[in-house]
Write a structure and sequence with these properties.
- The structure holds 2 protein chains of 2 kinds.
- Chain A is an alpha+beta fold.
- The longest helix of chain A is centred in the middle third of the chain and has 48 residues, at 264-311.
- The radius of gyration of chain A is 33 Å and the shape is elongated.
- By secondary structure, chain B is of the alpha/beta class.
- Helix content of chain B is 35%, strand content 29%.
- Chain B contains 7 helices and 10 strands.
- Chain B has a 6-stranded mixed sheet, with helices on both faces. Chain B has a 4-stranded antiparallel sheet with strand order 2-1-4-5.
- In chain B, helix 6 (174-189) links the parallel strand 7 and strand 8.
- In chain B, helix 3 packs across helix 4 (115-128), helix 4 (115-128) crosses helix 5 (144-157) and helix 5 (144-157) packs parallel to helix 6 (174-189).
- In chain B, 43% of the residues are buried.
- The chains are: A alpha+beta, B alpha/beta.
- The interface between A and B is medium-sized, with 25 and 29 residues.
Chain lengths: 788, 224
């Protein structure tokens, strides 16, 4: 019976090739999307799982009542060792902080990401060392552990162990001896590094690295048992503080870190996963609806077969089984296509979603028995869901209606069926388009300025090579600006001590107010980045670095009462009372995924820290020549500091990699959604026309011309599609309202994008009607009449 | 075998009833060969469909082998189809996607007959209807006469006690028609009850009794 069902199913699929192709195509694409999203979600859920001691590793985070449940990962340096000393279950603490460094060895200079870390780093975390002892590699203050790939770039085929290299970074510039080579960090690790040096350097540099005030470093604990976690959670930080006595600790298991609701990265990741899951579900649902839609459309064609089977004694259950055999077969054919499709798309998607030179996204489909079972189960579920409607409805048909040729759904009922099907297709198509527009909108919001042609040149200020003097660095910037501004390819030059790598906090004098971000810039910052001034004035070019006047962004302006320009802020460190001279449009000033991201922003020209990055906006023409000229000027004016650069958009892409990935993925997925919806509309349109083959034949016999047949076929479907579009618009509006309800930055409702789906449906209908009209016109009408 | 008492079938549109069948009393005994005749629209096919339980009468009583059909559920009726009734249609109604062999096998599959027996019964009928050479062809590759032979063979495969034939020769030329009618007579001689709907006096002559239907009523009955 099963064999027979499958044979018949196969022949049916072959016989109606167009519909099979549409169904298989739609399902295969939907499967591919779902597999990809599934891999992505699985990867996100198994993030950091490779650490062997992971079950015992916890990250210490801090929260305050004013943060409204959010937590920060930046922890004071004194906390970890104190917890180990006072809590018996806390076996170990490892403090670590990331840092960009400039590494030089025999004239080779490479910038690479690294971190400071306590000596237990390689024992606590499973970053295996190829050479070197994980227990002692970071014991000596001048020791450095390199990643395999950085070692290869620096030393080539030489043995790096025991070699001395020069490392320059914030506040460090000295020789380090290579004491270990680590395997490259896997993609699914939240801790990244290409080099690691002992944390003690951080303590030497900064007075507060060992105390209990705020700190930027992360602290990880190894805790033996659940009671230990509770004890750590209850650790009384206030005891060590003279002021700010409202801080409490949040102990986050390492495995939960990426999705932890109190960490902003976790919230973002979680909502990304929900979005992906939802969109993938939508794609699958749409493919199922397409199947049911087409099956309903085909039901008239297939009715005869059902009737005959019933007459010869088929029970309803047996017919249902046959329909399910068909949908299951189709589902598995689609799945068989989807797996290679995924394999073909994966490298491209991985590349697309990976910033060059960064960690590879590296999703791949592994054929473990578990995967195979999951895929097969997936195929079965989809087959059953897709087949449910035709199986339940069509097996209910009464054979006599078929035998007496009574089943022709004529008149209103048939038209309603077509309209309903068009409405479904149109709603989904339009919603997909609206979601795609929202995604575009996010992306344009993403940065708030054109980041493509801004060159970032690190000054390595803080390392001895760049010089540590604040005024020195500002003077250098002025000289450099004067030197390169006349160049034909240079539009503007600015500098910042923080942007684009981060921001500092601006604490308000009012202790109740949550702090804002602050970026130290020079007066040319706005024109270099191309930021828009919404209100008031820009910094005057000759402004002294005093911090007396500031610009705020719209987010911050919105929190202020009364007229913003001309009012005063109170706070900062050291405390001051700057006047607001202007409001700048919002832009992406820090990684929203980082622990302490605050969207409200103050821009100040301060004399407190040296310029770390010189920003140069260049003209799109002659970029390579301009870069060469910049290098020449740089090397002349700042001997000893290597000229290295990146474009700001690479930089931002890197910083916002999580965000970028979310958006690219969504874009792909909505693309597929539109594709499937188009297939559905196409199938529906061609069914609506083919249902009238007989009518066309009769008209031709009575002398209708090809043109009149074409007009006839398209006019009625046009009317139906128009009705469908009118019904679809409010439904689409409701659905997209629902989908986008949580978006703060909403796209405007505009009629064009809401009718786009309908227009596509209409266009396809005309296309299909034209095709069928030509076919009907050239066909012999007797053929289609005789078969009845 | 068939006892129909005061069968009515009408369609209601608004207050008006359009009768397809009315005042129909008809008994068919086992082993009979009954022909139903009448002009187009007389209700012949509807009567046959009611007999075959494909359609339900609006009023009246219909007993099949002593059991009242009116109160049966779909399951019971399906069971009676399988056990007792075979259909032959004017338009053959074979499944286009299945070969001759599979078309014949289909009713047995639905009756859950075992594989070896299925094979035996299909082979036997293929033999009897001289279709062995064509068993792997699809219906559209056969002539009309051959298709109808498959249709009759399919009606027989479940070893029914009653065959209902709706103008079985309507689409055939006279020679093919005669072949099919000979087959039906042969079956009747073997003891199968047959009820056919036909336009042709000649075909009616194969049977033992004729029922004339006009405007939904039995006008006269006659015997050959």
């Amino acid at each position: 019976m099963l064999r027979n069902n499958l044979i018949v199913a196969w022949r049916n699929l072959r016989r109606y090739r167009l519909y099979t192709a549409i169904n298989v195509g739609g399902l295969a694409v939907a499967f591919a999307v779902a597999i990809f999203v599934g891999l992505y979600v699985y990867r996100a859920l198994t993030w950091d799982r490779f650490h062997a001691k992971g079950e015992q590793i916890y990250q210490v985070c801090e929260t305050r009542p004013a943060w409204k449940g959010k937590a920060s990962t930046g922890m004071p340096g004194g906390l970890g060792p104190e917890m180990v000393a006072t809590l018996p279950s806390v076996l170990r603490s490892v403090r670590t902080e990331d840092e960009d460094g400039l590494l030089s060895y025999e004239g080779q200079e490479i910038t690479a990401k690294g971190r400071f870390a306590d000596p237990g780093f390689f024992e606590l975390f499973s970053f295996p060392l190829i050479t070197g002892d994980p227990g002692t590699a970071l014991d000596a203050p001048n020791s450095i552990v390199l990643s395999k790939r950085l070692a290869q770039r620096l030393f080539g085929s030489d043995d790096p162990m025991g070699q001395a290299l020069l490392l320059g970074g914030r506040g460090i510039s000295r020789d380090f001896i290579v004491t270990g080579i680590a395997e490259n960090v896997p993609y699914e690790s939240s801790l990244e590094f290409d080099w690691v040096i002992p944390y003690v350097h951080r303590e030497i540099q900064t007075a507060w690295a060992g105390d209990f005030r705020a700190g930027p470093g992360e602290t990880y604990l190894q805790i033996a048992d659940a009671a230990g976690v509770e004890a750590a959670q209850a650790f009384d930080l206030d005891r060590y503080m003279e002021q700010e006595k409202d801080r409490s600790l949040v102990i986050v298991p390492l495995f939960d870190k990426r999705l932890h609701p109190q960490l902003s990265g976790g919230r973002r990741m979680m909502s990304a996963l929900y979005t992906f899951g939802f969109v993938a579900g939508l794609v699958l649902l749409l493919a199922c609806i397409n199947y049911a839609n087409l099956a309903a459309g085909m039901s008239l064609t297939r009715a005869h077969e059902v009737g005959v089977r019933k007459v010869v004694g088929a029970g309803r259950g047996q017919l249902m089984r046959q329909y399910f055999a068909e949908s299951l077969l189709l589902s598995f054919v689609a799945l068989t296509l989807a797996v290679p499709l995924t394999e073909i798309l994966l490298p491209g998607l991985n590349r697309l979603l990976t910033v060059p030179g960064e960690f590879e996204l590296g999703l791949d489909l592994q054929y473990t028995p578990w995967t195979v079972v999951a895929l097969a189960g997936f195929g079965v579920v989809m087959g059953l869901v897709a087949g449910a409607y035709p199986a339940l409805v069509q097996s209910r048909m009464q054979p006599v209606e078929i035998m007496q040729d009574r089943l022709q759904v004529r008149g209103r009922a048939g038209r309603i069926l077509v309209v309903v099907q068009f409405v479904a297709s149109t709603v989904f198509l339009t919603t997909a388009l609206v979601v795609a527009r929202q995604v575009d909108h996010w992306e344009s919001l993403e940065q708030g300025y054109d980041s493509r042609l801004v060159v970032c040149i690190p000054t390595f200020a803080g390392s001895s090579r760049g010089g540590d003097d604040v005024h020195e660095s500002q003077r250098f910037l002025d000289i450099f600006r004067r030197e390169v501004l006349p160049l034909a390819g240079v539009l503007a030059v600015s500098g910042s001590s923080e942007f684009p790598d981060g921001a500092s906090d601006f604490h308000f004098a009012d202790p109740e107010r949550q702090e804002a971000s602050e970026i130290e810039v020079d007066p040319y910052f706005l024109r270099t980045l191309g930021l828009e001034l919404v209100e008031g004035e820009d910094f005057p070019p000759d402004l002294l670095a005093s911090g007396r006047v500031v610009l705020v962004n719209q987010q911050l302006a919105a929190t202020l009462e009364g007229p913003v320009v001309g009012s005063y802020l109170e706070g900062g460190y050291p405390p001051r009372r700057p006047r607001i001279i202007g409001v700048v449009s919002d832009f992406q000033h820090d990684d929203p995924g980082s622990g302490g991201f605050v969207p409200e922003l103050v821009l100040s020209v301060l004399p407190s820290r040296p310029i770390e990055t010189v920003l140069v906006r260049v003209r799109p023409e002659r970029v390579p020549e301009t870069l060469a000229e910049l290098r020449e000027a740089w090397e002349r004016l700042s001997p000893g500091v290597p000229f290295s650069y990146r474009f700001l958009d690479d930089h931002s892409a890197e910083r916002f990699i999580g965000h970028a990935i979310t958006i690219s993925l969504l874009r792909w997925v909505t693309g597929f959604l539109v594709l499937i919806a188009c297939l559905g509309v196409f199938g529906m349109a061609s069914l609506a026309v083919s249902r009238r083959t007989k009518e066309v034949a009769v008209r031709k016999v009575l002398g209708a011309s090809t043109a009149s047949v074409a007009v006839l076929l398209s006019s009625q479907s046009t009317r139906l599609v128009l009705i469908a579009v009118v019904i679809a618009i409010p439904l689409t509006y409701q659905l997209s309202e629902f989908l986008l309800r949580s978006e703060v930055e909403r796209i405007e409702f505009d009629l064009l994008s809401y009718s786009a789906g309908g227009l596509i449906a209409l266009g396809l209908t005309w296309l299909v009607s034209g095709y069928h009209a030509v076919r009907a016109a050239t066909a012999n009408p007797v053929d289609s009449l005789r078969s009845e | 075998m068939i006892e129909m008492h005061d069968i009515e079938k009408y369609h209601q549109s608004g207050p008006r009833k359009t009768y397809v069948l009315r005042y129909v009393h008809l008994n068919v005994a086992e082993g009979e060969f009954v022909s139903i005749m009448g002009p187009s629209g007389a209700g012949k096919s509807t009567l046959l469909h009611i007999m075959g339980m494909l359609d339900e009468p609006t009023a009246g009583s219909y007993r099949f082998l002593g059991a009242e059909v009116g109160g049966m559920g779909e399951k019971e009726r399906t069971e009676i189809h399988r056990q007792h009734i075979g259909f032959v249609f004017q338009a053959y109604h074979l499944i286009d996607e299945q070969t001759v062999y599979e078309n014949l096998e289909m009713p047995l599959l639905y009756q859950k007959v075992k594989g070896s027996e299925r094979k035996a019964r299909v082979s036997e009928l293929l033999d009897r209807f001289q279709m062995v050479a064509k068993k792997d062809l699809f219906p559209h590759q056969l002539s009309g006469g051959e298709q109808q032979r498959v249709g009759v063979a399919r009606a027989l495969i479940g070893q029914p006690t009653l065959i209902l034939a709706d103008e079985p020769t309507g689409n055939l030329n006279s020679k093919q028609g005669e072949e099919v009618m000979d087959m039906l007579r042969e079956l009747n001689d073997e003891g199968t009850t047959i009820v056919q709907v036909t336009h042709s006096e000649k075909n009616a002559g194969y049977g033992s009794r004729v029922v004339h239907l006009l405007d939904g009523k039995i006008e006269q009955e006659g015997r050959y």
